[in-house]
Structure formats: structure tokens, C-alpha cells
Amino acid sequence: MANYSYSTKDLINNIKTLSSDAFEGRRTGTKGAEKAKTYIINAFKKEGVKPLGGDFEQHFTFSKYNAVNILGEIKGTVNINKYIVLSAHYDHEGIKNGKIYNGVDDDASGISALIAFAQYLKVNPPKYSVILAAFDAEELGLKGAYHFVKDNVIQQRNIMLNLNMDMISRSKKNQLFAVGSRYYTHLKPTIENFQDLGKVDLLIGHEGLGDGDNWTNSSDHAAFHKANIPFIYFGVADHEDYHKPTDDFERIDNQFYKDAVETIIQVYTKFDALEL
To answer: H or E stretch including 256?
Structure first.
């Protein structure tokens, strides 16, 4: 059993709430997305997270959509003007043919982990400043992440690392993959030398080296990678409920999920201690 550095009770409550029918699948530009946005901002405020640049909401538009990124900031104690961006996306597929696509794994799991990070960092101030980024419109082409990388109050060269979480709450083989160290080799030893905790087997893979699907551009981390900002993406293998209305709270593995979040937090702490 792992020792947890955040409230596991809150983690499970947050993922259950965000993936409930009341949020109508959180499709960009809908009432469900608005509800999710309010929920996340309130959770950040509760943990003492300050908005980045004066406002938690970063509005942007594309085609017919009005979208909103949610951006929080926690000041570093040493490298105040250098940032680690912790990210997940809060949008999902919404309602199709009368069925709600609740997206518990994709990606209520990552958003609830962001809130757990806020709890952790409240008690353990980071060396590098941290941006907690809940991106919108990932399902519509990573639009929120691309907008953030292109246009925010932080210069790109001051973003040292992106840790992106998308689908981290269940795995038949208890495997959590870390993607990205192939391209940013200074990050590899931290992951290779990590002592697995709890139920989770942390593996390097899915980097386009003949080990199944290449996830280099599969989620919001792609926007950082294209800007030559180092990233590590944490995610599980696709499962039978991926992008289906059955991606519901009852399908997650609570123990795996809690251990996955603790794993990512502990990997993050090791990165925070490095010269990035």
C-alpha cells in the first residue's frame, strides 16, 4: 500500500462527480463544459491556487466553438521564472444519439489528478513555478493546448517541462506508460530508476520504436513537443470503453488510479529537483 501525499477520498469524489451525468459529457461550448469549468476553478481556489495572469479563464475561439482553458499558478521557491506545466483536458465527447459520453478515464482522471497536485503543492511548495492547466477542446484537435503554448503570459523558453495526464485510471495489466524521454533524454533516468509503488508498473513505451501505437502526438503534450518544450505524457493502453458511452465511473480501478496519481506526483518531485 502506497503512502499518499494527497486526499484519496477527494480524488475519487472529484472523478466521480466530473464524470457524472450532470456534466453531460463536458463537450466544448456546452452547459456541461461550463459546469466542469466552474467545478475545477472552485477546487483550485479551495487549495489556494492563484490564477495565471489575473484570471483562471483563458478564452479562445475556433470554427464555431467558444472554448476556455483553466490556468492556475503556484509560485516556485527557487526558480520563480521557470515553469513546469502540469496538464490534463476537461472536455469530452458530450451527448451523441441521446447517450452521455461521461469520459471518466478520458479525462476526468487527469483533471482529478490535477486537483490532487494542487493539494500536494499546497503542503510541499515547488522549486520551479507550476502551472496547473486544465485544457479545453482536446477532443477537437488539441486546440486548448495549442492555444496555450502559442499565447499566454509565460514565454515559451521559460517553460521547462510539460507533464500531461490523459487516461490514468484503469489498466488490465496495471501498466502506466511514460512517453517522451526518447526525445528528451535528460528525463529518461528519472523514469528508468523509479521504484514502482503500489499497484502501478511504470513503463517507458509508445514512443514510436516498434512498441505498439506511437503516442507522441496523441494528446495535449503534442503542442509542447512541436514547440520543442520537453514533455512526459502519462497514460494507459486503450480499453474497450475508450470514446464510448460506457467510459463510466464504475469501470475505473480505484486502487490502480490512486497509485497512478501518487506515482506521477513522485516522478514530478524528482523532476522538480533537477536542473531542467
So the answer is: helix 254-272
